[in-house]
Design a protein that fits this description.
mainly alpha
Amino acid sequence: MPGVNDQPPRPRLSRFGGLYRMLALDIALPLIAVQAMLRAGQSPFVALSLAALFPFADTLIGIVRSRRVSIIGAISLAAILTGLGVAFVTRNALFAILKDSAFTLVFAIIFLGSLASARPLVFRLNAQLVDEDAAAVFERAWDAYPAVRRAFRLMTLVWGLGLLAEAGLRVT
């Protein structure tokens, strides 16, 4: 008689492994690297250059493994490379830091604008962070349950408004 123990154990982080990797490589490690380099006396340009290595590596690994580009990794890499370009051209790292407010504003507009599309951005990002079977479950839930559609639209609205507020506060 088959029992519960007959199934192979699931890896503990399988459900959220992609999310944790993205948070570490695209957000946490670049922030830590910048802070560590600045405290070590390196120039902001050098610190930003080092921070770009993490999302760059994550984006390349993602492309090689899945043969597709991670939206968040690509956006993070584009933001860091834009900051590096601005800092290099202007010779002023302050512009590289302030450009984050511009990117945050653009993302706020994208989040809020996606509310008018068939599937809001938070839904699309969640579907991209899971495997194909889970993405199919997301799609079926979207089609079958109005509460799911409302929840994803609400999450998208909250993210959009939060990013809008962050952009304003950061500039100030």
